[in-house]
Amino acid sequence: MMNKQNRHGKELSLIVLGCFLAGSLAAIVAGGQMETGSVDLAINTSQTPNDFLYNTNILSDLPTVTRMSPKLLIDGSDTGHMVWMDLEENENYTLKYRMTDSSMASYGGWEDWSSTVYSLENVTQGTTLSLITLCSASLDNGGDMYVLYANFTGPSGPNDNRDVSINVWNASHDEIINVMDGSANWTSFNPFGTLFLRGAHGKILFDSSNKMHLAFNNGTHLLYQYDGGAIETIDSDVIMGEFDMAISPSTGNLSIVYSMGSTTTETSKELYEINGSSGDWSMPVALTSNSIEDTRPSITFNPSGNLLVTWSAYVNNATYGYIIKYMDATVGSSSEREISTDLGGLNVNPSSQPIVSFNPKVFFFRNRLNIIYADTTNFTQYGSDIDMCWQQYPSPGSMGSNVLTVMDKEVSVYNDLFHASAVSSVDDIFIAWYAVKDGNSSDSRIRMSKIDLVAPTISVTHPTGITNGGDPISMALPNDGIIINFTIDENEDIGGAIAAWEGSSVTSGISYDSILEVYTIDVPNGLLSKGEQQFTISCEDEAGNSITFTGNIKFTGFNFATVLTVVIALAIGVPAALVAFYFYKNRAKFAKKRLELKLGGKKKEPQTWDDGETYVEEDTSSSDLDEDTKIDLKKVDMD
Fold first, then answer.
1. Which domain holds residue 284?
2. What is the mean predicted confidence (pLDDT) over 588-605?
3. Please, are residues 538 and 496 in contact by the beta-carbon 8 Å criterion?
4. Is residue 57 part of a domain?
5. Domain count, the chain
6. Which pairs from 80-85 meet CB under 8 Å and 24+ separation?
7. Confidence band (pLDDT; 50, 70, 90) for 253?
8. What digits encode the pLDDT tens for the residues 372-389?
9. Least confident residue range of 198-207, 541-550, 603-612
10. Taking Cα atoms as reference points, which of 247, 296, 246 lies closest to residue 270?
11. Residue 40: CB partners within 8 Å, gap ≥ 6?
C-alpha cells in the first residue's frame, strides 16, 4: 500500500513539474523576463578627493639636467604646449618645446606628453637668471608656437651693457626671426635683496587678427613691436623693470602694466599702465605711489572688462620683505589689498628672515579670483623652503574670504621659483614651475599641478521633466524597459559614470555616444514595477569633485508584456495539466491496452476438449515474456 502511494505521489510531482516547465516555456516564448530586483548599471574607479592634482616631475621621461623657466599654454583644442630651458654641459642653454598627445581637459591628459621634442641649441651664454626670465611663448591662430628670447652676442662677464640679440623662434617650423640687435643693462635676480631691479623681461602674444605683439625691456627702456614693424619706445627711465600685457576683451586695445623707477633704490619703483595700439598710446597712468618698490606685475581682465593687477611690493619690515598685492585698476587704489598675508587657515613658524613673496600670476574665471605666487613663508605643514602657493577668493567683489593652498607637497626639499600657468576650455588651471633642490642647483626640474574646483553637473534629457531630487514624474509602465539619457558637463574631465536602479550592486552597462555626447542607460523590463522607483547617477572628475543625481519615476497601469506572459503561460500550462490528469485517472486502462498489444494485439478465444471441457490454448511464443510485460501483468492484477 505504501509503495502504491509513493508511486502516485511521484507521478503527481512529475505532473506539477510539467506544469511549471510549461509555464516557463510560455514565458520564454512570450519574451517575458523572469529577472527581479534592481541593477547597478555601470562602475568606474573613483579618485580620492583633492583640492588639486600634483605631478612631481612632468618631464621625468627626459634626461636629467638643470631644467627651468617653463612656459605653459593650452590651445583651443585643449592640447598642452610647454616651452622650457635646459642647461647643457657646455654652460649653454637649449630652448625646448613639447606638446601633449591628449587633451589637457581630459582625464589624465595633462600627463600624456608627446615623445617629440623640438630644440634650439646654444641660445645664450652664461647662467644669469635674469636672462632666463625674458623668455616668453605664444601660439598663433594657426597653432604654431613662437618663442621670444634673448641671446648674448658680446663677451662673457657682468650683465651691464652687454650686446644682445632679441629673437623669435618659430618652434613649429624651426625658423628664427631677428627682432633687434643692441645692448642691455640687466641685473641678476636676487629674491632676498632687491627683487627685480633691472630684471630682463619679454612678452609675446597674438591678437584675434593673428597679428604678433612683442614687448621687452633692455634695463632702461620698454620697447614694443607690432606685426614685424618698427620698434617703438613705450617708456624709459633709470630703471625699466618687469611688465605684463594683455588685450582687453571689451575694447580690443592692448594694456601694458610695467614697473619703472628714477633711482636704483627700492623706494622709487612704481607701477604704470598704458593702453592703446601701435602708434596710438594713452598717456602713462601711475597705479601705485607708495615710496616702496612695486615690481613684477601680472594682469588679466574680468568679464566686466576691469583690469586686474597683482605684483610684488617691498614692504621691508620685521616679518615681510616682499608681499603680493592686488588691485582692480579700473576701480583704483581703493581696491588695493595684500594677498600673501592672507594665510587662509595655515599656520606659520617664526622666521629669522623676512618673508619674501614674488612672481605672482593672476587668473579670473567663473567669478573666482585666483593668484599663484612663490613664497618663502615657513608654513608649519610644509617647511621653510620656497613654496608655490595658490590663493583663491570665491567672492572677489568683497574679498571677504580666501583659500590658501601650498602646491608643492614635498617638505623643505625644493625651492619653487619661476612659473607659468594656463587655463583649459573647461576652466581647469594648470601650473608649471621651476623647482631647484636646496643646496644643489644642478638638481632642478619642472613640476605641474592641476586645479579644478568646479564639480561636474548631470542633466537627464530623457524622459523629460526629471530633476535632481525632484518629485517623481508619472508615466505608464512600459512594455519593453525604459531608456534614460543624460549628459555631463565637463564630460572630458571624468573617468566614467556610475548609475544604479533602486540601489542594486549587480553590474550592467552604460553606453556613450561620443558624437552627441549623450549617455544612455537601458533599464530592462524585469526591473520595472508599478509605483515609485528611484535611480541614481554619480560621476567624479580627476581632482575628486563628485556629484550624484537622484531621479524619481512613478509607474502607473499594467505592463502589457507581463500580462501577455501570464496569459500565454495559462494557455499552455492549464491544458497541459488537464491532459496529464486525464492520463493519470485512466492509467489502468492504458496499462491493459499496452499489455494486449504486447500479447499479440487481441484476446485469445476459449477452446473445447473432446470430453466437453473448455480451455484456452497456450501460446508458447509468450513463454519468454520480457520483464516489462511481466511488470505490466502485475499492475493489472493489482488493479
1. 66-451
2. 58
3. no
4. no
5. 3
6. 80/104, 80/109, 80/110, 80/113, 80/422, 80/430, 81/137, 81/139, 81/145, 82/58, 82/113, 82/432, 82/446, 83/135, 83/137, 83/145, 83/147, 83/171, 84/59, 84/446, 85/123, 85/132, 85/135
7. very high
8. 998 888 888 777 778 888
9. 603-612
10. 296
11. 498, 499, 500, 501, 504, 505, 506, 507, 508
Residue 94 cell numbers, joined: 637649449
pLDDT of res. 34? 30
Are 409 and 499 in the same domain? no
Residue type, 208: S
Distance, in Å, from the CA atom of 350 to the CA atom of 347, rounded to the nearest integer, reads 10
Question: Is 629 found in the same domain as 488?
Answer: no
pLDDT digits (tens, 9 = 90+) for 12-68: 333 333 333 333 333 333 333 333 233 333 323 233 334 578 887 888 888 888 888
Q: Using an 8 Å Cβ cutoff, are 56 and 388 in contact? A: no
CA distances from 163 to 125, 148, 160, 185 (A): 11, 17, 9, 9
Report the distance separating Cα 25 and Cα 17, nearest Å: 12
Same domain, yes or no, for 505 and 523?
yes
42 and 72 share a domain? Answer: no
| Residues 6+ away with beta carbon under 8 Å from 579 | none
What residues does 68 pair with on adjacent strands? 85
Cα separation, 10 vs 15, in Å, equals 9
pLDDT > 80? residue 590: no
Give 340: exposed, middle or buried? Use CB within 10 Å, 0-12, 13-18, 19+: buried
Q: CB neighbours (10 Å) of residue 401?
A: 11
C-alpha 491/C-alpha 454 separation (Å) is 12
Distance, in Å, from the CA atom of 105 to the CA atom of 75, rounded to the nearest integer, reads: 11
3-state secondary structure of 7: helix
Last residue of a domain, one of 561, 577, 601: 561
Together in a domain, 306 and 379? yes
Name residue 398's amino acid: S
Q: Report pTM.
A: 0.74
Please report where in the chains the cell 597705479 appears, as a residue.
287
Is 79 domain-assigned? yes
Q: Residue by residue, what is the 3-state secondary structure of 467-535?
A: CCCCCCEEEECCCCCEEEEEEECCHHHEEEEEEEECCCCCECCEEEECCCCEEEEEECHHHCCCEEEEE
Same structural domain, 539 and 635: no
Between CA 270 and CA 442, with CA 378 as vertex, the angle to 5 degrees is: 85
> Which residue, of 431, 451, 471, is where some domain finishes?
451
CATH number of the CATH domain containing 549: 2.60.40.10
- CA 345 → CA 207, 348, 380, 382, 400, distances in Å? 41, 10, 11, 14, 14
* 18 occurs within a structural domain: no
CA gap 309, 257 in Å, rounded: 8
Which residues are bridge partners to 286 per DSSP?
Answer: 272
Q: 626 or 488: which carries more pLDDT confidence? A: 488
- Strand 231-236 vs strand 221-226: parallel, antiparallel, or unpaired? antiparallel
Q: How far is it, in rounded angstroms, from Cα 62 to Cα 559?
A: 63
Place of cell 589689498: 337
Inside any domain, residue 139: yes
Percentage of the residues of the chain whose pLDDT score is greater than 90: 31
442 and 467 share a domain? no
- Give the dihedral of Cα atoms 121, 125, 128, 133; nearest 10 deg: -40
CATH number of the domain where residue 120 is located: 2.130.10.10
For residues 501 and 614, membership in a common domain is answered with no
- Per-residue pLDDT reduced to its tens digit, 277-323: 888 999 999 999 887 889 889 999 998 899 999 999 988 888 888 89
